[in-house]
Amino acid sequence: MFKKITVNQAQVGMYVHKVCGTWLDNPFWTASFALKTASDLKKLQGSTAREVWIDTTRGLDVAAPDAAAAAAAEPATTTAAAAPRADAPLSVQGTAPDFRFKVEAPTSTSDELKRAKRIVKISREAVDEMFNDARMGKLIDTGTAVTLADEIAASVLRNPGALISLVRLKKIDDYTYMHSVAVCAMMVALARQLELPDHEVRDCGLAGLLHDVGKMAIPVEILNKPGRLTESEYSTIQGHPRAGFDLLAQTANVPDVARDVCLHHHERIDGKGYPDALPGDQISLQARMGAICDVYDAITSNRPYKQGWSPVTSLARMTEWTKEGQFDAALFGAFVRCIGIYPIGTLVRLKSERLAVVLDNRKSLLAPIVRVIYSLKSMVYLPPETIDLSLPGIPEAILSSEEEATWGIVDCGRFMAD
């Protein structure tokens, strides 16, 4: 159970789930920590923090008034302060309900791409280290994971499509790590589309970041095999959700929702998924969200065994799979609304027989802002021209989406920045 208290009420033996305020107010390097000694307590009470959330399932609760008075009347002893219960579960119930993301002004795709590139660089290094620790049998550093998920979420909340479009262009060698960043970003975007409260949005982002950590238990030669997997190899791959769950079950301060998404993001609404073949009504909302985000990023990414599909082609295929019973239909509809009919970074063909890249679809799903880059009549690149297709009187319109390879265009993403 979570409880907010003042720092003056804190005692040795309590478990601090979160320090209220900014990271600068936290005198410790980790988001959550036990107050094990008088020195820890003095450090907390001497900081600029004024309030903290404590987890009473992992440490002491605030003493009742009569108990506090009785304790004060007792003579001092040399007995050590009470420690957190040894049998307390490592799990926490999630982000404290009063959590709020910092409100920031929306940004243009071009501006957010500049910030997103920095986030992607940091994320690549942090997730690489985090997953390598998992491969070596070490526990996940939850504080690092939360901080990283918050950075990703902040970018998505400023501009839902910029970072998502950037991580779609990941290198094949980066897939395992950047896939987690992409799913984190899409989980945040989808959770926001569903109007979930901020503390649930945050937990969804962390769940996305950690959902594939079990792949660290899979031999690299199977993960990156360029050809078709054997039946035995596929069975090994199917073991990654359980392996990830087992790792997270040993890791402190991982929200239960993250463990659930890790274990069940390959379940299907029709009950044909794995590892537990759960029917749709037994799959949590967050695991159903994770299934959609995981597959979308997988099929839009280049892999050792196949070229990624365009966003529009991927959404069309997923629409078919939804009808066949793989995904939750209502959630998939919400996912399309937040990603867009023409997601950012999509190559489209205009009425004027020019190719353009979608820059922003927040104003209109069918008539986004695009950047014209290529003439199909002359077969030459054009000086980039930005057009808002939703404005009145604009003679242009999208005829279709196009595959980059069809026209020999490499990396549409390079045309998105100013």
UniProtKB/TrEMBL annotation:
InterPro entries: DUF3391 (IPR021812), HD/PDEase_dom (IPR003607), HD_GYP_dom (IPR037522). Pfam families: DUF3391, HD_5. Signal peptide: none annotated. Residues 154-351 form the HD-GYP domain. This is DUF3391 domain-containing protein. It comes from Duganella qianjiadongensis.
